[in-house]
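Quick sanity check, ABC transporter ATP-binding protein:
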Amino acid sequence: MLMDEPFGATDPITREHLQNEFARLQKQLRKTIIFVTHDFEEAIKLGDRIAILRERSHIAQYDTPAAILAAPADEYVAGFIGQDGTLKRLALLSVADVPPALPPDSRLPQVGADASLREALDLMLSHGTDRCGTPTGVLTYASLCEAVGAPAEAVVSGDR
């Protein structure tokens, strides 16, 4: 199936709901869909593989979202990604992907293992107290940075 900018004319709230429903259906149906978008964050959220095209439809890079964010092929791809590639990588990993550092401390903010590292970072930075799931360990700021292979400065320098 080919979908060309299917959510482009929707407001941000509706767009997010449609993206989430699309992702749910894709997991359930397991069909190949070519999804055309100019929204790189949408491509990261919905794509298993991303092709970044140059002028005249030449492929600048084709890979998984994580691989493109971790190692852009060149300056063109890096410019397409933007300044906050490290923060975008946090949305691709879940808390379960990072080994717990210490036993849980009930006084600390907690997230479930299915939360993205981006959600965990947002909670760390806001000192919130949202709770979901059963805690199994502590995700430290250092372990979060290590999981995306970035120094601490890179993880907090972009927009939250």
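Posting the structure with no commentary besides this: Strands lie at 2-4, 34-36, 50-53, 59-63.
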